[in-house]
Amino acid sequence: KLTSLALQPVITPELLQGRVHLKCAYSRPSWKLSLQYMVVWSRLSTPGKKEQIQRDTTLQSFSYVEMNGVNLKLGHTVFCTVTAFTRDTPEQQSLPEESKGFYAGIKFLPESLQIAEDGKEHVLTILSTVPIACPGHDDSCKITLQLSTEDLGKNSQLLGPPNIALSECQVDLLQAPCSGSSCAAATLTVTAVTDFAQDGNRISRIRAEPVGRRDLLWRAYTPKDVKVTVRDLPTGNCYSFTDPHIITFDGWRYDNYKIGTFLLCQSVSRAFEVHVRQWDCGGHRSATACNCGVAAR
Known about the structure:
- This protein has 297 residues and is mainly β.
- The protein has one helix at 216-219; strands at residues 10-16, 19-25, 35-46, 49-58, 62-66, 77-86, 97-98, 102-103, 106-109, 112-116, 121-128, 142-152, 164-166, 170-174, 184-192, 202-211, 226-231, 239-241, 245-247, 253-255, 260-266, 273-280, 289-296.
- The longest helix has 4 residues, at 216-219.
- One of its GO terms (cellular component) is cell surface.
C-alpha cells in the first residue's frame, strides 16, 4: 500500500521562454514502480483559506505553473500539494504532501524597523523572490522601484518634518541568477530625522512602487509597506542669555562679558556652526555685554 512516501515538494521560481513560472519539484521513491503524481497548486486567498488554481497529473517529478498576473499574481503565497498513485490501481493513493508556502513578489528585510533619533543609518534590503524578465529588446532587465515615506498618526501633515529619511528615492532590481529566496536585490539606508521636538514615538511607513513596467505582472503590483517606528530621544540644548550667561550642552556654566563676535558652537562632523555678536550694553558704571546678533550655518 502507498502511505507516506517522503515526496517533500519544494517550490522554486524559474524563467521559461521569458515568462515567470513556479516549479514544484518532489522526490521519487527509490523503488521502481510506475507511479503517477497529482499536483494541486493553490494560493492563500485569506488567512487560513486556500484557493485551488491548477491541478496536474504527471509522470514527471515536477510540475509548473505560470505567474500570468490573472489567477496567480505577485503578492500571492503559493503552495503545491503532491499525491502519488499507481496507474494500475489509481484508488490507492499516498498521503498528500504540501510544500512550504512560497511568497512571490518583493520582500523587505527586515520587514519592520525600530530606530531612534540618534543619526544612525539602518540598512534595508529589498529583494524579489521571482526572476526579473526582459519584456522586450528595448527594455533593460530590471525593475525600478519608486520609494516614498509617509508619517502615520493624527494630523501627520501638522507634525513638522518627516520622521525618516531614505538614502535613495529609486532603486533598481537587476536580473540575476536566483539564489536562496532572492532573484534580485538592492539596499538602501534609513535614518530617523532628528527634529529637536519632544513629540513622542512616531510611526512611518516606506512604500515601494514599480515604475515604467508595461507587463501585466508588475504593472498592477504594489509591495507591502515597511513599518518604521521612530523612538524619540531628548534633544541637547545650549544657552546664551542676558549679559551673557552661557550654559553648554553638557551643563557647564560660565559668563562672557567681552565685546565682539564669537564662535558659540561648532560641529566637528558636519557643516553646522553658530556665531554670536555681543555689544556693550552696561553703560559707564559696569562693563556688560549683551547678545545683539546671531548667525547660524
